[in-house]
Amino acid sequence: MSALISDLSRPIAAAQHAAAGSDQPLIDLILVRLAARGGATRAETIRDLSFFVQHRLSPGEWRRAAEAALGALTARDLAEERRGRFTASAKGLKRASDYLLLRPTVTLGPWPEVRDCQLIARALGLEGESTPKLKALGTPEGLRALVVQQAFGLPRRLKTTPARLRGELALVALERAFGNKIKSGLGTGTALSPKAGRALAAQLSRRPREFNSDSRLIAALAAEHVDAAQPTLDVLRAAIMKRFVSEALDAGGAGSGGTAGVTAPPAQPLPATARPPVAARAPSLARGAPLPAANDAAPSNDPPPVVRPDLDEFAEEVQRRAAPVAEGWPGNRKAFISLVWPTIRSGRPEWGLSDIEFKCMLVEAHRAGRLSLASADLKNKNNLKDIQDSAISYMNTVWHFVRVED
Question: Any idea what the Cα angle at residue 35 is, between residues 33 and 39, rounded to 5°?
């Protein structure tokens, strides 16, 4: 940061020959402000962009950096000053358009529109989008959806529904539950009931919890992934731009020199919050290995690393754990899912599964033919609690049992 301020404090003549380093991201950002319809005065430029840089620069440092950048832009014929107002030249407009990754036919409007649409799109890595699509970023729902899509590697759709996005997130959560060792065949994920899909998608949160609606789920995930205190539109925008500016400054400060380029480094995808990395399976926890004694007096070790099972390992372990609690006659033995789950949770702690992950993994294993689920006779009231606790809704079916192979 000291190198950044030092570079920006040099005379304008030196700034013209500055290497592609610390001042470049700020020059491009300021040029975008000048390229907006009507341009900006020196005071307006400093005021309008100060919120984006105040987490990295003090007011005095930002003022000196902005004034040096304005001088450099004017000296390079990228901006013109008339009666105290700066506007981008034709050359500057072309450079600003390239920086924002706009289509050649797109022209910049007033500053609020540029700030809330084109600049946010640039910060999120969108390239060559049409103006109508970019306007979706002006709504809380559109911005949240795009942040979540980018965070979890989903296809970018500026126009989607909360239900569809919830289904896509549920599939991501299911694949992570299997350690990303499968590609789920559950389609769009909407075959799960809305409540089950929401509960599964909520496992992607840093703090998994119940959400009452798909919109609240998406809002919470979006806020988490840009480190925003709230999922409101203004707070999300501020968090996105602050992160973008920080990444641009860090990348610019790490430059090794050379002629100043046209654009700042591309925006990096927002990091997705993931569970701990999959580690190598310990020999003592290999498939089918005997479980440690519950009364082992040896000193306890650190919690085991999270090691997610693949589909075959999961199905085999479920069958093994279901056998002792199964009921029925040979050829038709079944175990309540609610009775199998506690044995999996305690017997395979290294899997780190939640209840909803376990149930949805059962659905995937059933769909893939690795095991078989069955429904209970709802007329039988003797095991009502087990029936309720075991229920898994999928499409038009509700399952309660795991069939045990003899």
Answer: 75
Domain of 107, CATH number, reads 1.10.10.10
Q: Say whether pTM exceeds 0.85.
A: no
Residue range 293-342, pLDDT digits in tens? 444 444 445 566 889 999 999 999 999 999 999 999 988 999 999 999 99
Question: Among 34, 164, 163, 264, which residue's Cα sits nearest to residue 155?
Answer: 164
Last residue of a domain, one of 76, 100, 124: 124
What is the reported pLDDT for 23? 52
How far CA 137 is from CA of 106, 111, 124, 233, 328, in Å, comes to 16, 15, 10, 9, 57
Amino acid identity at 297? A
Residue with tokens 């001088």: 71
Q: How far apart are CA 237 and CA 255, in angstroms?
A: 27
Does 215 reside within a domain? no
Residues 6+ positions from 342 with CB-CB distance below 8 Å: none
The side-by-side arrangement of strands in the sheet containing 373-374 is 333-336, 401-404, 373-374
In the listed set 99, 124, 149, which residue is the last one of a domain according to the structure?
124
- Which residue segment(s) compose the domain that 29 sits in? 1-124
For 384, the 3-state DSSP assignment is: helix
CA distance 49 to 358: 48
